[in-house]
Amino acid sequence: MRSVGVAATVGAEVVTVADVDARERALRTGGGAQALPRPGTAEARQLRRWITQVLVAEQVVAAEAGALGAPTGPTPTERDVLPDEVARLEIGSVAAATLSGPLGRAVFARVTAEVRVDEGQVRDYHRRNPARFAADPAAGGGWRGAPVSADLADVRPVIAAHLLAVARRREYRRWLDARCADVAVLAPGYEHPGDPRQPDNTHQH
């Protein structure tokens, strides 16, 4: 692997090829190494592009943390912001990677602090998903009964919390994507994995 050069600039900061090399080595010596593509393949180059995206996003988050100063409230846990695989899919792998540490989660809390969910959204969600969050009815003999609709009054708090969590993840990803687009410049060979102009993109039309 190359060990010199620039993979991306993030404002005044630089993500070097050596940074990408180091993160790739860490992945290849970790527990999921067997699932990674063989070095030198198109898939491996796409992995390095993804790593670059993560490193850029981490730089953006670190800069935002410095600009915001110390958090004003408790920092959420990783489980608070990414409770399951669905949440990780919603927010995307790059944004999810920035939330593995407390710095990213503190920025998440500040960036999404003004996100709100109104009563109309709660009612609309319940209308479309009347059995969601309802207690499982028991049918006897260890069997589960047919789904039943829940009273809105009974499930309003959990629906509101669910919608708020989804909205906050959406806002964080929107903010992160916009900030990265504003301040990051990617070097040739380290373009976004989905950029149709780069040769390893598998979704060309």
Strand order of the largest sheet: 2-1-5
User: From the helix content, strand content and strand pairing, which structural class follows?
Assistant: mainly alpha
Estimated radius of gyration: 21 Å
CATH class: Mainly Alpha
Portion in strands: 5-15%
Largest sheet, if any? 3 strands, antiparallel
Instruction: Give the ordered list of helices and strands.
Output: EEHHHHHHHEEHE
What's the number of extended β-strand segments? 5
Give the overall form: globular
- Spatial separation of the terminal alpha carbons: 31 Å
- Tell me the domain tally: 1
In CATH, the topology is named Triger factor/SurA peptide-binding fold
DSSP helix fraction? 40-55%
Q: Which CATH architecture?
A: Orthogonal Bundle
**Mean pLDDT, as a whole number?**
90
Give the full name of the CATH homologous superfamily.
Answer: Porin chaperone SurA, peptide-binding domain
Q: Helical stretch count?
A: 8
**Low-confidence runs:** none
Organism: Mycolicibacterium hippocampi
Pfam families: DUF7158 (PF23716)
Protein name: Malonyl CoA-ACP transacylase
Summarize the structure in words:
The protein is mainly alpha-helical. It has one domain (6-134, 149-186): Orthogonal Bundle (Triger factor/SurA peptide-binding fold), CATH 1.10.4030. The chain is built from eight helices and five strands. It has helices at residues 17-28, 42-68, 78-81, 85-91, 93-98, 102-111, 119-128, 152-183; strands at residues 6-10, 13-16, 138-140, 143-144, 184-186.
